[in-house]
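Q: What would this chain look like folded?
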Amino acid sequence: MLKNKNIRKKMSKNRRHWAIRQKVSGTGEKPRLVVFRSLKHIYAQIVDDTEGKTIVASSTLTKEFNIDKKMKKTEQSYQVGLNLGEKALANGVTRICFDRAGYKYHGRVKALAEGARKAGLNF
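A: My prediction, written as structure tokens:
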């Protein structure tokens, strides 16, 4: 029974992800911010889909991001959003479209988006 529930959850996430990807596409003037969330870490990158290139990337594993073991994962996500926003502004990106990749907009995904907004990115 547990296996079927996990399969259903994964299928629902994939369905949400592809529905979002049909609507959201990154261009040169408005690239796409993509989020990937694992159990321990969070990864974010800004992608230009017309050229197929990653402009800026940040995660909890990058060397310039020092993780404090006492920080919660939502706080780490907020810091990753701030770091990504600062890098994006340094590369001349100010407007983005947000791709939550099928994850629900709460918790760590929401914290990352708020950090990016705080850094100066416009969604």
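The first strand starts at residue 32 and ends at 37.
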